[in-house]
Amino acid sequence: MSALTMALVGCGGNDIANNPLVKEWNTPYQTPPFSEIQLKHYEPAFDYAIEQNRADIDAIVNNTEAPTFENTIVAMERAGKLLNRVSGVFFVLNNCDTNDQMQEIANNITPKLTELGNDVSLNPELFKRVKAVYDQYERGELQLDQEDKMLLEETYKGFVRSGALLQGEQQELYRQYTTELAQLTLKFGQNALAATNAFTLNITDEAKVAELPDFVKEGLAADAKARGEQGWTVTLQAPSYGPFMTYSSQRDLKEQLYKAYNTRGIGGDSDNLEVIRRITELRLKIAQLLGYKCYADYVLEEKMAENTATVNGFLNELCVATLNYAHKDVKAVTEFAKTLGFEGELMPWDWGYYNEKYKEAKYSINDEQIKPYLELSKVKEAVFMLAGKLYGLTFTEVDNIDTYHPEATVYEVKDASDKLMAILYLDFFPRESKRAGAWMTEFRGVKTVDGVEQRPLVQLVMNFTKPTENTPSLLTFDEFTTFLHEFGHGLHGILAVGKYESINGTSVKRDFVELPSQIMENWATEKEFLDLWAKHYQTGEAMPAELIEKLVASKNYLAAYFNVRQLSFGMLDMAWHTLTEPYTGDVLAFEQKAVASTQVLPMVDGTAMGPAFTHIFSGGYATGYYGYKWAEVLAADAYSYFEEKGIFSEEVATKFRKEVLEQGGHKHPMELYQNFRGHKPQTKALIDQMNLK
Length: 693
Prior knowledge:
Layout: H1 3-17, H2 39-61, H3 69-78, H4 81-96, H5 100-121, H6 124-138, H7 146-161, H8 168-198, E1 200-203, H9 214-226, E2 232-235, H10 238-247, H11 251-261, H12 273-289, H13 295-300, H14 308-339, H15 348-363, H16 367-370, H17 376-391, E3 394-397, E4 409-414, E5 420-427, E6 439-444, E7 447-449, E8 452-454, E9 457-461, H18 477-494, H19 515-520, H20 527-530, H21 545-553, H22 559-577, H23 587-595, H24 614-617, H25 627-645, H26 650-661, H27 669-677, H28 683-690
Parallel strand pairs: 5-9
Antiparallel strand pairs: 1-2, 3-4, 4-5, 6-9, 7-8
Helix pairs in contact: 2-3, 2-4, 2-5, 5-8, 6-7, 8-12, 10-15, 14-15, 14-22, 17-18, 25-28, 26-27
């Protein structure tokens, strides 16, 4: 009997000892045994793992030896191993394969996890030991390598930023605020998912879908059939909503869809308006308890940008540089729409249709032409090939590792020396149990303990166009770039190295984490890359050179418009989190004012993006959404290095791997970037890349 099993029997009896989330995993690479895990296992596993985590912390606090880096800082890093494992399974699945019971479990365990976090960060004896080690470091008494230094600094700052210096009543307020905030951010995400799933538009009149491309009609028909409906069903999931808005000329239906999409979280059972007000109020209260004027000041202190003034200046600089061009973009599409007989003011629900028509007229290109060359299985092979050319990686699908859903597939990732680098889970298609969007996460990260390295279990989740009875999954160009984007995050995890999981891989400052993903998007329009694999899924013919030329020529199509649209998201985020007093007014009015400077299409009364904006209200990007544009600047400058040396340059790829991907959070990101590129990034690089005219 193992030591772990003995402990389980001693502390919880056979039930907990046999819980598949808790017992030792005798699986390939210690991957989660998903087929053994049932809903009933989660809460007991969490309760036991929390108990073990508390025991780990007690052991550190009660250590009679003087505080050292090893017995305090490293011991804290290693504490909670079991809880990390249980959380890694549950919360990943709660995002990509949830149900009512999973959400109830999340509601039950979130207060317990918040309480544990507060009990650790507000433990005066524990902080006393951490501070003692930090003071030794400040006095120059410790010999630490770079990783050790960063772990110590992050641990100490983590305590201070989590209320360790607060006293008495302030600590109790901090507990109250963080506990409620955790519940509300969870509720926000649940409401957004429910609101997305609540609306569908069923069409039975064939005349209203006759103009749609076959791939769109097939998808809508498949959705209708799956729901037991006749005809064609449009949902608010991106692969359904987006193509219908792009290819349908049915203004009345599109207006209905647009308003449904942009009123998610407004009213009804899934209302998020009061949730937003309270989330931002609690964040403000926490920041002010800790001595900051607003929540943005608190968050940005630990970002690459470092302060509110820098972020606001950055967003405004980009807006000023591109806003007039964005208005020109809208004017050009509007004038073109008039040539097709459109009358009146172009509304947001008209935009997708006419900008697609204009793009087709200007460049003779559309998604219908491109999609046959972007069959998902071929795109996947191509992305794997790109990782092989750049970093020597190989990807082998395996069938001896459990998956959590029939649609998920699993791969062994190895390097050029045949060393296992990661296990990669891919999950491509939308379903009601999965939140919207695309993301990368991990069931576990990289760490090294006693010379033994733990390689990561990486997951990439997308919501791509589904295959139909007659057609395989054919990606839109946007879906293709999304795959590359998320795969860049995946590489950040796959290629990570280091001793401490908390500062490895994607555990970097939020406005730096998008660099590895944004840079990958550039290969989507590289002829040298496309020529290697882009073939028609039916004929096997290579993508014509003429089509590639059109694709390259159109890559900056409406660049200013899309840039300003993205800036509006960042500005809304900053508006909510630079509040210095709680906001009790109209959420929709607040949003209209916050994004007014970026509006190049008419605002629609009663609509808003905020009530379903999961990135900033439940997804960890609060005061961080600007980071997408920030990272675009980094990526534009960084990719120019590949353009200079060759898009498959081993020299540049090796340098990017060593100085960025492998480093994780071991150093300040500006230092990492300059080590790779040789200079600081400049906003001009992104503006130049847009080729505005």
